[in-house]
Amino acid sequence: MKADFLELDKDEYPGFIETLRDKNEELNAFNFIQNSYGEGKIISVKDNICVKDMPATASSKILEGYKPGFDATVVRRLKENGFRVIGKTNMDEFGFGSFGLNSEKQAKNPFDEKYVSGGSSSGSAISTAIIKDHVSIAESTGGSISTPAAFCGVVGFTPTYGLVSRYGLIDYANSLDKIGFMGRNAAAIKEVFNFSLGKDAKDTTSLERELIDNNSRKLYVINGLMKGVNPLVVDRFNRLLDRLISLGYTVEYKDLEYLDYSVPTYYIISMAEASTNLAKYQGFKYGFRLKDFSLDYNDFFKSARKEFGKEAKRRVILGTFIRSQSVRSKYYDKALGIRHLIIRQMKKLLSDGLIISPTMPIFTPKIEEVNDINPVEAYSMDMLTIPPNLCGFPHVSFPYFYEKGMPMGAQLIADHFNDYSLFSVLSEWEQNFKYKFAGELG
Amino acid sequence: MKIGLEVHVALPTRTKLFCSDPAYENLEEVNSNVCPVCLGLPGAKPVLNKKALEISAGIANALNCSINKKTWFIRKVYFYPDLPKGYQITQLDGSIGLNGYVEISGKHIRIRRVQIEEDPAKIIREKDYSLIDFNRSGIPLNEIVTEPDIEAIDELRDFMEELRSILYYQGVDINQELKTDLNISLSENRVEVKNVTGVNNLLNAAKYEIKRQESLLNEGKEIKRETRTYNADSGETLSLREKETEEEYGFIFEPDLTFYSTKEIPLSEAIIPGKKAREIALRNGYSEKTIKELTYFDRKNLDILSGLKSDEFKKGVSLIEKFASFNITDYTKEDFYRMIASEFNQLDKQAFKSVMAGNPQVNEADRQEIKQFVKDMLVDDPALLSRIKEDGKIMNFLVGKIKKKYNLSANESADLIKEVIKSPSVN
């Protein structure tokens, strides 16, 4: 299957870029837009993935001015296959956030600027929504692809952990980080995904495996996951299930143990890892540089690290606490154990079917609504996207309903290496449901 | 008194521990062996050097450790300018080797673990500022952690000698200055002397620290639990900081790496040089001390002496001593066997080397005969002597003649001619 990608020739490109820049003023989709033009199908890349000689800031002030001298493996592979990068997309700082607001420039929903875009891959979702033939290379740790895809009305695919090399990805939580893709349909994503796959000698955790499509028509709904979902969202979701049943799918309701622990387990592991990954930002070698060399080491580090945003600081502090000797066995070690239990439970179910749920337990919130909620409430919004991310299962969020002009997304989860089954179901869905895109461009 | 050590050893690999930069080439040119991985740039990921894993397994095996079937890495988090990632990749529970020992004079000094870790960068301190050289960042190390089983300075010396020799036989460059953390306690409170470079400094630091702690105890004072540093110039240890609690390093599993199976690593029986030397000495009725001196840092000598029969042993030892006295270090086993068949004790350095080069040995009787031959020539032709002195070609002619007639080396021939010319009977 081949998707049509936008291929702009020299004459069209400046006009396209100009329009994109104007649009970007409103929505804050990009941190950087490439002016020069070249041949090829266009992709955008989340700003925590290195593209040679383009800025890579992960939307953090601490990386301001940093231009890596190398391509991430996924970028290199795509460039070699004729793709070119038009820019780096906005995100929550280092991936820390579910709404796209933890960035100097808050991302806005292309359907209505009063609403959030979702995060952390906010810019990848917005750019996919506003650029017609284009795929965005995004990244998910706990839901950073599904969430913005759902809120912005595009398809967001997160592959099995390890299938796409992480070399060149600025780490959030290494055991959870997965590079994935956003596009306007399954076929477009599948094409780019296929070029990105494969073992990479530069990433120990990358994998080379044959991918499976088990053609299952069995869908599981997990009772425990549905109990925290807004009842009106449940109602819209049930209509989706009805349509899928009419297409010949069966739906079964199941209970799964330990899923209640997935949110705390995820945040313990991700914060523990994140707090070590952020230790390298010291204001010495790249990005933000502190010039005051009269300070002693400790004060120097402290001054440099003031440049982190609020959520980054919160995660450094919590993560450091979690790793401290007095509580490590109570939190970190236990979380690693529970993660394995959850994987085992879910794997059993996924052996003969797919798990389906709404992507988010709420309707798309307004920016002002999210600004008011506390961190724990915000973290709990990830309850549906965390389980597949915690376990490294491939999953996809796709549009299935439009509520008062805003899109809603549902999420399908497959077993490890069953990535292609998601595309099969989705292709069938796309023949029966027409996605609507906001503010089309190009 | 209890002494425990953490000894850091650089491993003999071509490349660094987690990237493919050279580990030891080009070190003079600062910041030349660097890449995104060992600079800790965002996005770079470590990939384990399998050779380092194999060498470490060999070392752990030689230190009588049990080899972890699966070995893994952790992040040790602390801030220091030489640590580009803000954490060091090292090992703890998942260490390659656990619970071993080194035997010195019948006593076991227990080894708690052998861990693989990356060296931080090097800080070059100038007067008003410091510079960082990342060539060293990521060089593979083993940290060898002992239990506090060392109870005297002599034991410390013997332990370090034995350890260095064991490491030598695992291919480690033994000329490197080992960096050691010295834990030493004469009371309940442990004092750690950090980062002592070289064995001599280690012994001196330990001696100083014992004296210091002893005199505090004699005065009825308390020994504080603290971290100290050793100043090699003054020979003193100085307090760095008091230690209320253990340092907090916030260890977590290194999620960029995986579990590494050690099952496939080929391990042969390790050479334990102390044991070998004792066996050789016993078998041949020789002093253990002499054998140790000859074999501890010389694999060739160990090979030779282990293979010698008892009746040749004494001669073999004196031959090795002969090599040493002539400063010949690059001899091969073949050289050794050629020389042991000769009457090497009668040879001066020149003749020794000539025989070593494959020329037949000239014995004293031959030498007399040759000298007589030269003398006779001089008597037959009285002008010859002055011509030799004036014309180098004549000398060469004579050398050629003797070389051919007696099958000698040119040097030896020339030496003999010169001996005759200089002798009073000729002049």
Kindly list the characteristics that best describe this protein:
heterodimer; A: 442 residues; alpha/beta; Amidase signature (AS) enzymes; eleven-stranded mixed sheet; 11 strands; 15% strand; globular; B: 427 residues; nine-stranded mixed sheet; three-stranded antiparallel sheet
Can you walk through the features of this model?
The complex is a heterodimer of chains A (442) and B (427). Chain A has 442 residues and is of the alpha/beta class. Chain A has helices at 12-27, 73-80, 122-130, 146-152, 186-196, 223-226, 231-246, 262-277, 297-305, 310-323, 329-350, 367-372, 375-380, 386-391, 419-432, and strands at residues 30-33, 41-46, 83-89, 135-140, 155-158, 178-183, 218-222, 250-254, 354-358, 395-403, 406-413. Chain A has an 11-stranded mixed beta sheet with strand order 1-3-2-4-6-5-10-11-9-7-8, sandwiched between helices. The model of chain A has no long low-confidence stretch (mean pLDDT 94). Chain B has 427 residues and is an alpha+beta fold. Chain B has helices at residues 50-62, 153-169, 199-218, 273-284, 288-295, 299-307, 310-325, 333-340, 349-356, 364-380, 384-390, 392-406, 410-422; strands spanning 2-10, 66-67, 70-71, 74-77, 87-90, 97-104, 107-118, 122-125, 130-133, 140-146, 179-185, 191-197, 226-231, 236-242, 252-253, 260-261. In chain B, α10 (364-380) crosses α13. Classes of the chains: A alpha/beta (442), B alpha+beta (427).
In short:
Chain A is of the alpha/beta class and 442 residues long. Chain A has 15 helices and eleven strands.
Task: Detail the topology: elements first, then pairings.
The complex is a heterodimer of chains A (442) and B (427).
Chain A: H1 12-27, E1 30-33, E2 41-46, H2 73-80, E3 83-89, H3 122-130, E4 135-140, H4 146-152, E5 155-158, E6 178-183, H5 186-196, E7 218-222, H6 223-226, H7 231-246, E8 250-254, H8 262-277, H9 297-305, H10 310-323, H11 329-350, E9 354-358, H12 367-372, H13 375-380, H14 386-391, E10 395-403, E11 406-413, H15 419-432
Parallel strand pairs in A: 2-3, 2-4, 7-8, 7-9
Antiparallel strand pairs in A: 1-3, 4-6, 5-6, 5-10, 9-11, 10-11
Helix pairs in contact in A: 3-4, 8-10, 8-11
Chain B: E1 2-10, H1 50-62, E2 66-67, E3 70-71, E4 74-77, E5 87-90, E6 97-104, E7 107-118, E8 122-125, E9 130-133, E10 140-146, H2 153-169, E11 179-185, E12 191-197, H3 199-218, E13 226-231, E14 236-242, E15 252-253, E16 260-261, H4 273-284, H5 288-295, H6 299-307, H7 310-325, H8 333-340, H9 349-356, H10 364-380, H11 384-390, H12 392-406, H13 410-422
Parallel strand pairs in B: 12-13
Antiparallel strand pairs in B: 1-10, 1-11, 2-6, 3-16, 4-5, 4-15, 6-7, 7-10, 8-9, 11-12, 13-14
Helix pairs in contact in B: 2-3, 4-5, 10-13, 11-12, 12-13
